[in-house]
Write a structure and sequence with these properties.
The chain is an all-beta fold and about 190 residues long. Helix content is about 0%, strand content about 50%.
Length: about 190
């Protein structure tokens, strides 16, 4: 699937299937809707999601922008107060052979790249540029994942830049293990 250079696409949730590469070319932007009804999966609440998919990739040189400030209700000087409901940017569940590389992820209203129960993941060369005042706007969250390689990313987040999780609601997916992080720069107010 190609998002061509020079184009901007406004979207609510869309799901990637197996064997799909979402390629956002340099100069292209995918921006998230601010309307709750455009995110029908209340459990995931993501702009881009994939479940039980294999050989899924997100590549390019373009931008995926969650427009996080639209979900903030008040500026409290050092932090924003946000809506109770705020979508994540990308959520991948039980996916195998995942590649996410060479993209800019901007202004997530909540967790940026949340991988749950994923196996064999390569994350390389991302620029994650979140507003440092947005709460819970983590950069990369491998959650119950195995064999994950995160390299050469620059991450700015108002919360965790990279956090390895084992959230209780996905306990059946087993532990997080075999995760390496190399050559990343991290900036956070958390």
């Amino acid at each position: 699937v190609l998002a061509p250079a020079g184009k901007t696409f406004l979207s609510g949730t869309f799901r990637l299937k197996s064997l799909v590469n979402l390629h956002v070319e340099s100069g292209a932007r995918i921006i998230g809707s601010e309307r709750r009804e455009d995110y029908p999966n209340e459990k995931l609440r993501c702009l881009i999601e994939a479940q039980d998919a294999e050989h899924v990739s997100l590549t390019g040189g373009g931008v995926i922008d969650g427009r996080g400030k639209l979900f903030m209700t008040e500026d409290l000087r050092y932090i924003y107060r946000g809506n109770v409901w705020r979508p994540r940017l990308i959520g991948l569940i039980r996916c195998r052979h995942v590649t996410v590389r060479d993209l800019t992820l901007r202004e997530s209203a909540n967790w940026g790249l949340h991988l749950t129960g994923c196996r064999d993941v390569v994350i390389h060369g991302l620029r994650i540029l979140n507003d440092l005042k947005i709460p819970n706007c983590d950069g990369i969250d491998p959650d119950h994942c195995r064999n994950v390689r995160i390299s050469d990313c620059h991450i700015e987040a108002g919360d965790d830049c990279i956090v390895i999780k084992n959230t209780p609601e996905f306990a059946e997916l087993g532990p997080s293990e075999g995760i390496t992080v190399t050559g990343c720069t991290l900036m956070s107010t958390s």
